[in-house]
Amino acid sequence: MTSFPRAPRLVKGAIVAVDPKTNRVDRSIAFQYNPETLSRSLQIQVAEGEGNARAEALRIKGAPIETFRLDIEIDASDRLEQAEQTAVSLGIYPQLAALESLVYPDINDVIKNMSGAANGELEIVPLEAPMTLLVWGKRRVLPVRITDLSVAEEAYDVNLNPIRAKITLGLRVLTYDDLPWKQRGSTLFVTHHREKQTLARQSSLSTAEATKVTQVNIAGL
After folding, report:
1. Which residues is 27 bridged to in the sheet?
2. Measuring CA to CA, which residue among 166, 187, 165, 192 is closest to residue 69?
């Protein structure tokens, strides 16, 4: 039985790590299975200035704080059936390490800082994690910070290598208010913001259409 030749190819989501020093893509972690659901929450940034509170009622400080929550499944069953060597010897350790390393600083930077502290250096440069991008189709490529990561390992091989796990990711979108203006992440968020406004216009009703569906004279309000 052959598949339909014109069937659309499944697009997979991914987490992409960008080196903060060089701005180059360091590694891409494609989801083995796309999450069935993706929860989002937007917290509005209300301006809270002094003076006339009524004048501030409609003011906002910038883009809302947006958070994502999603579950990722990793399963080595197919690769074990094919006797793929990495899966046989390590299970899904490499995939787990790739995700978990996104919340760790580079070990070379850690050693440099610890050595400096041991030698009496007073100014220790804060460690920096990779800049992380959530890639969810063409219209959602966002700089994010991983706020929490939990792993439920559900099965092991005879050597106690994990072979199946579910990872829950909490992400906070980084906006142009969080990042340097010309940095790649800031530019990506500007593109996202602009496209969101463009898409919103495509769904808006004309005044006449709004009056018809609401039975309220919108123009006369």
Report:
1. 17
2. 166
154-161: Cβ within 8 A, 24+ apart: 156/91, 157/80, 157/91, 161/89, 161/90, 161/91, 161/92, 161/93
The structural domain count of the chain equals: 1
Residue 188 lies in a domain: yes
Exposed, middle or buried: residue 199 (CB in 10 Å: 0-12, 13-18, 19+)? exposed
- Any domain includes 157: yes
Residue 1 lies in a domain: no
Q: Is 138 exposed, middle or buried (0-12, 13-18, 19+ CB in 10 A)?
A: exposed
Answer yes or no: is 96 within a domain.
Answer: yes
Q: What is the pLDDT along the chain (221 residues), one digit of tens a residue?
A: 445 555 566 889 999 998 877 878 888 999 999 999 999 999 998 877 665 566 667 788 889 999 999 999 999 999 999 999 999 999 999 999 999 999 888 888 888 888 888 887 766 667 777 789 999 999 999 999 999 999 999 999 999 999 999 999 999 999 999 988 888 889 999 999 999 999 888 887 777 777 777 777 767 77
- The residues that bridge with 155 in the sheet, in sequence order, are 164
pTM to 2 decimal places: 0.81
Give the containing element (helix H, strand E) for 140: none
